[in-house]
Amino acid sequence: MKSHTSLSISILLVIATSVAMTSCGSKTADATWYSQYEWANGLDLVPHPSIDQQEFSNQYAKNKLYWDKTFEFLKTTDLDTISPGRYIIDQGNVTAFVSIGKPNPLDSIKWETHDNFTDLQYIVQGKTLMGLAPRSEGTVTEEYDSRRDISFYSVNGELLEAVPGSFFLFFPSDIHRPAIHVEGFDEVKRVLIKIRSNTPAE
């Protein structure tokens, strides 16, 4: 896979690990496993510091095959040249969606959760914002739609910058607000990979 950023991946990894290990709560429960990076199997992208390490560890242990296929797809695919579309990685369990275009503005994107899938969000080219908040802090505004595997929320979450080189993971326990437009970045290439979860949020 081609490099997608001028930043050094090794520097990004040190930053991500350092920030994550100084966080509190469940995000640091499996810091050693997380920072060893063996789960990436040679992938030269780094996890964003916002990722819940404990939940990632849990999901990886229960669905290792799905995660290994996900990271293999990211490692072996030329994300700079892959065409927009839907790519089946593991039928019914792991699917990638590649898109190019202008992201939606903040006020048109709702806070959402999924019960049965984790979302991996990666910006290949350009820049967006990603919203994140704990599911436990949100108020449901639209009840769960099982056909679409989605619920909508009202919550005071944080907005995080998403750029090439670092991917986000949004688990069923996370409320997220994906790929928000940033002024000056009207042509964004994004990869969304939906990875089956066996532990729907309470």
Q: In terms of per-residue confidence, which ranges show pLDDT below 50 for 5 or more consecutive residues?
A: 2-29
Cross-sheet strand order for the largest sheet = 1-10-5-12-3-2
| SSE string, helices as H and strands as E | HHEHHEEEEEEEEEEE
- Largest beta-sheet characterization: 6 strands, mixed
Total number of β-strand segments?
Answer: 12
* Number of H- or I-type helical stretches: 4
Average pLDDT across residues? 87
What does the overall shape look like?
Answer: globular
Alpha-carbon distance between the termini? 38 Å
What is the percentage of strand-forming residues? 35-45%
Descriptive overview:
- With 202 residues, the protein is an alpha+beta fold.
- It is built from 4 helices and 12 strands, in the order H-H-E-H-H-E-E-E-E-E-E-E-E-E-E-E.
- The strands form 3 sheets. A 6-stranded mixed β-sheet has the order 1-10-5-12-3-2. It has a 3-stranded antiparallel β-sheet with strand order 4-8-7, with no helix packed on it. Strands 9-6-11 form a 3-stranded antiparallel β-sheet, with no helix packed on it.
- Strand 7 (139-145) and strand 8 form a beta hairpin.
- Helix 3 (53-62) crosses helix 4.
- The radius of gyration is 16 Å and the shape is globular.
- It starts with 8 loop residues before the first helix and ends in a 6-residue tail after the last strand.
